[in-house]
Specification:
Helix content is 44%, strand content 18%. The protein has 13 helices and 13 strands. An eight-stranded parallel barrel has the order 1-2-3-4-7-8-9-13, surrounded by six helices. The protein has a two-stranded antiparallel ribbon with strand order 5-6. Helix 3 packs across helix 4, helix 4 runs parallel beside helix 5 (175-184) and helix 5 (175-184) crosses helix 6 (195-212).
């Protein structure tokens, strides 16, 4: 599956995106979603966080204005309760003909702003496991009875049913996160680590599946990363290095929550191994404030980047969430140059 990223931000200019009027209007966001359909992408991740437009509302609007676009909707268990979310997602999946994908996020946010007081990391991941388990039950069974530590329902039936239970994507590199993924997720998303790191994590998660007694189909794996693609490798590297120089000069800030995350820490440590790993994995952005999918970049011609992504595919990665800025022009560029090579 090949997905992109649609900025779901109140402020324009996210990670160097074009600053335009109406950057988060329905017309602009629809233009992104329809461009993804036109250029052969399967859909896009929509980010979530307090203080941004509500992700589920945006996904619903875009699903109504498209025909094949699949929204990967980022949601937080502390923001949603499982029965409420299961009903909303099932309804949207029903109305969209089975296009809903879900990315469950456990990392910290502005919890107090929406009344979430579960700040302990272990407790948040324990709650997430219950959330995933209960949502699955509500999508597939009638009169659900569930009484857990964090959630409980009695005689609960969700209607209408989803066309097919939406796939549950999940991220996180801590021991608690991997425990949740091995037990309950459908797709474990990795940040842009080098091949040896991804290989190691896949092996560990496969072992954990057996250890936790996984009851579902085997876990799939995905990669969320920035891809800087130009006609030639020289052009791509010139662009990437110029951006890093600008980031260093302007002092891009990274939030404390990013610095505290285990996955982010793993990415930050890569720079000590060198600015370029695995041929074209660029780690320098992380030294100058890059975070999340912007911490490491795959850089090169379309053939270079496709070769690198296919090496992840050989390890077992089957889902890719790519992006670069400005987002809309890059949908077309990478749709023309990169997507055909990956298909």
């Amino acid at each position: 599956m090949l997905l992109w990223y649609i900025p779901n931000e109140n402020r324009p200019g996210h990670r160097g995106d074009d600053v335009v009027d109406g950057h988060n209007s329905l017309e602009t966001l629809t233009e992104h979603a329809r461009a993804l359909e036109a250029y052969g992408w399967d859909g896009a991740l929509l980010g979530a966080g307090w203080g941004r437009p509500d992700t589920f509302t945006v996904a619903t609007a875009l699903a109504a204005r498209t025909t094949t676009f699949r929204p990967l909707i980022a949601i937080r268990p502390g923001y949603w309760r499982p029965a409420q979310f299961a009903a909303a997602a099932a309804t949207l999946d029903h109305l969209s003909g089975g296009r809903v994908l879900v990315n469950v996020v456990t990392g910290r946010d502005d919890l107090a702003a929406y009344g979430d007081d579960t700040t302990d990391r272990a407790a948040r991941y324990e709650r997430t496991r219950e959330f995933l388990r209960l949502v699955r039950l509500l999508w597939t069974r009638d009169d659900v009875e569930y009484h857990g530590k964090h959630f409980a329902v009695s005689g609960s039936t969700v209607t209408p049913r989803p066309v097919k239970p939406p796939r549950l994507f999940f991220g996180g590199a801590s021991a608690e996160a991997e425990w949740v993924a091995a037990a309950e997720a459908d797709v474990q998303l990795f940040w842009g680590e080098p091949l040896d790191g991804v290989r190691e994590r896949i092996a560990r998660l496969r072992a954990l599946e057996a250890e936790v007694g996984r009851e579902h189909a085997p876990l799939d794996f995905g990669l969320r990363i920035t891809t800087v693609v130009r006609d030639t490798a020289a052009e791509a590297w010139a662009e990437a290095e110029a951006r890093v120089a600008t980031m260093a000069a302007t002092g891009v800030a990274r939030s404390a929550d990013w610095d505290a995350a285990v996955g982010q820490s793993r990415l930050q440590e890569l720079a000590a191994r060198g600015d370029v790993l695995d041929d074209n994995l660029y780690t320098a952005p992380g030294r100058v404030g890059g975070a999340g999918a912007g911490t490491t970049w795959l850089v090169g011609s379309a053939a270079d980047v496709a070769k690198s992504l296919n090496r992840y595919r050989e390890l077992g990665v089957t889902h890719f969430v790519l992006s670069d800025t400005p987002y809309l022009p890059e949908i077309a560029r990478q749709g023309d140059q990169l997507v055909p090579l990956l298909r």
